[in-house]
Every structure is written in structure tokens, then in C-alpha cells.
Write a structure and sequence with these properties.
alpha+beta; 14 helices; globular
Length: 358
């Protein structure tokens, strides 16, 4: 690890409050689309290591506008650059996806628009220290973590945090709207009734998987205080998944929150060193709430969609409801009554969210 100066909890909290909600006029929109990869006509076929590596090399050789990454089970993810309009975002992602599909077709492979793998059991392809550690942590609460890592896919829509003041375009209102709109988006775009050859009883099995995983890591922050306070508390009081190291396997402390790590430093059980600034961004990347603040807002609760351009529908819906002032106000008034049904259990485990996934 690079030599950096250890930081205090107060310093990290100030960083969270300062960088996780970058305020200003909401102008940009982005979308992250994840895809399972199957062989048409042989949907249950498990790609051999050679087939997987050939497919990966083929798509990585493409010139795409969106960064392309690979999820633990070999799912492909394209993350658009921030776009100035919905139309620009859609066009860029449409063109990138067309290029990926054209590259995979000669290999007998295709992108599949479903949010959980209907046919195959979870198989982790990536052997990086991050995913070794993630698997160890998520295994503590059962098998759902491996299914989420290796057999699920989503559409994530990203919008600007918003203005510093009140009103429909203010970041406080947009933060609250994202959480209240969440179960509506879960229900409207549920697209994962099957997993590994069985009917699960859920319209969104992907959401059920998230609800079964380690509660602190996937839970939404409390909405009973301002956004910056709620998110900074959530970040500092959630256990760290792992401690990055020069060599693997990375240490996986149990129950060590980021706040406690800053207080105990290298003496913290299982840590081996004190936290540095870079650990904050890494820690946030291991938190999986329905809405994540990373300068902008990531809405993470939407299932992958069917068809070549089904992903564009939730993109358009979220974009319209957040960045048009009248639509944002109307949407907030429509979902505000749901705040009384959230209960004491945070999303995605609250009865409201579970009902939406059914």
C-alpha cells in the first residue's frame, strides 16, 4: 500500500460531508447497465475458462465511450460518462451496447436482459483480493451473497445531488425522493422471478437477495435527519469489509466499523494498520444501500431490463422525475405518504420494500 498519513474519524466525516453531496444545478445524468452473458439456444451452458477469456478479450478490445468492467460472476457492466441530457446518455449507451453485441455474436454469445440468472448456479470468475474478501464477508449471512455477486444484474441510474437549498431540485429533497421512490421502482421494474433453474416466488429475486445479505452493508441510512449527517453516520458506523494490503488475502475484520478503526488505528483487531484517506473511498464502494451518495446519487434498486433497450425506460423515468422541477414536485407529493409505511426496519428489509419485490 502507498505510504499515507493516518486520519481521524472527524477528518473522514468531514470528507464524507464535503464530497458525497456535490451541490449545484442538476444537469448531468448517467446510467450503469449490467448484463448476464449467455449462449443463445444453450442458456444453461456454463462458459469454459477459454470461452470466458475470449469473450472478455473481445469486448475489452472495443473502443467504447463507457468504461467497461466485469462483475465477479463474469457479468459485463458499462457505466456511461455523465451526459448533459437523457437523449445524449441514451445514444451513447445504445451505441456502446450495439458494439458489444456485435462483438459477442460471432462467439455465439449474447447479453441477456434479466436481473438474476434463470438457469445457472453462481460461479465466481474473478479471483481478485477484493472479491475473495467480499465472498468471505457475505458468506456469514448465507448463500444470497454469492448469488448477488455472480448471478445478478441491474440498471443503476445516476443523477446530480442537486441544489444546496430547499425545493424540488434541492439535494435534501432529492435524497428523500430517491428513497421514497425506491420501492415504486422496485415494483415497476421487477424482472427476476427465476434463479438457477427454479421459480423463487419473487417478482424481483434480485431485491430479495439484497434483503438477505448482511444488514448494515445493504441497509438505507435513516431518513430522520439531514442527508449529510445521515450518510456520514452510515459510512462511519458500517463495518469495513476488508483492509487493503499489498498482498492477498486481504484481512477481513469482523464488526470493525470505520469509526472504530480510526479510533483504534493499527491496534484494531484484524486490521493490521491504521486507516488512510484512500480507505474512505474504498469503504464507500463496499456499501450497497438502495441509494448511494458519491458526489451524485446512485439509484441502485432497479432490476436489469429485457430487450435490447429496456434499460432506457427506467433511465427516462428517473431522469424525468428528478430533473424536471414540476415532475419532481409531483412525484414527491405522490410518494410522500409512503414515508408512513417505511416502519422501523430500513430498506431493503422493510415490509414496504419486500412487498414491492413480491
Amino acid at each position: 500500500m502507498p505510504d499515507e498519513v493516518a486520519v481521524s474519524g472527524a477528518e473522514l466525516e468531514a470528507l464524507v460531508r464535503g464530497v458525497c453531496f456535490k451541490t449545484g444545478p442538476p444537469r448531468a445524468v448517467g446510467v450503469e447497465v449490467e448484463w448476464l452473458v449467455h449462449a443463445p439456444g444453450r442458456p444453461g451452458h456454463v462458459l469454459s475458462a477459454a470461452e470466458y477469456e475470449e469473450a472478455l478479450a473481445t469486448v475489452r478490445a472495443l473502443s467504447l465511450s463507457a468504461p467497461l468492467t466485469v462483475e465477479p460472476g463474469g457479468q459485463l457492466e458499462l457505466s456511461s460518462l455523465p451526459a448533459p441530457s437523457l437523449g445524449a446518455c441514451w445514444e451513447a449507451m445504445r451505441d456502446d451496447l450495439a458494439a458489444v453485441r456485435a462483438a459477442l455474436a460471432p462467439l455465439g454469445l449474447a447479453l441477456t436482459g434479466t436481473a438474476t440468472d434463470p438457469w445457472r448456479t453462481p460461479l465466481r470468475r474473478l479471483r481478485e483480493p477484493r472479491y475473495e474478501a467480499m465472498e468471505r464477508v457475505l458468506d456469514r449471512t448465507g448463500s444470497s451473497g454469492r448469488a448477488m455477486m455472480c448471478s445478478s444484474a441491474s440498471v443503476q441510474v445516476c443523477v446530480d445531488a442537486g441544489l444546496p437549498g430547499p425545493g424540488p431540485l434541492g439535494f435534501e429533497r432529492r435524497w428523500r425522493l430517491a428513497h421514497l421512490l425506491g420501492p415504486v421502482l422496485v415494483a415497476a421494474f421487477a424482472n427476476s422471478p427465476f434463479l438457477a433453474g427454479r421459480v423463487t416466488g419473487w417478482r424481483s429475486t434480485r431485491q430479495a437477495l439484497w434483503a438477505a445479505i448482511e444488514p448494515g452493508r445493504t441497509a438505507a441510512p435513516a431518513l430522520d435527519t439531514d442527508a449529510r449527517t445521515a450518510w456520514s453516520r452510515h459510512v462511519l458506523d458500517t463495518p469495513v469489509m476488508c483492509v487493503r494490503a499489498d498482498e492477498g488475502p486481504w484481512p477481513v475484520p469482523e464488526g470493525l466499523t470505520l469509526r472504530a478503526w480510526t479510533r483504534e488505528g493499527a491496534r484494531a483487531a484484524g486490521a493490521g494498520r491504521a486507516p488512510v484517506v484512500a480507505d474512505l473511498d474504498y469503504h464507500v464502494s463496499t456499501l450497497f444501500p438502495p441509494v448511494r451518495a458519491r458526489g451524485h446519487l446512485e439509484l441502485r434498486m432497479i432490476d436489469a431490463q429485457p430487450g435490447e433497450d429496456g434499460w432506457a425506460v427506467p433511465l427516462a423515468v428517473v431522469g424525468a422525475l428528478f430533473d424536471d422541477e414540476e415532475a419532481a414536485e409531483a412525484a414527491y407529493r405522490a410518494v410522500a405518504p409512503l414515508s408512513g409505511r417505511l416502519g422501523d426496519v430500513p430498506a431493503p428489509r422493510s415490509p414496504l420494500w419486500l412487498t414491492a419485490a413480491r
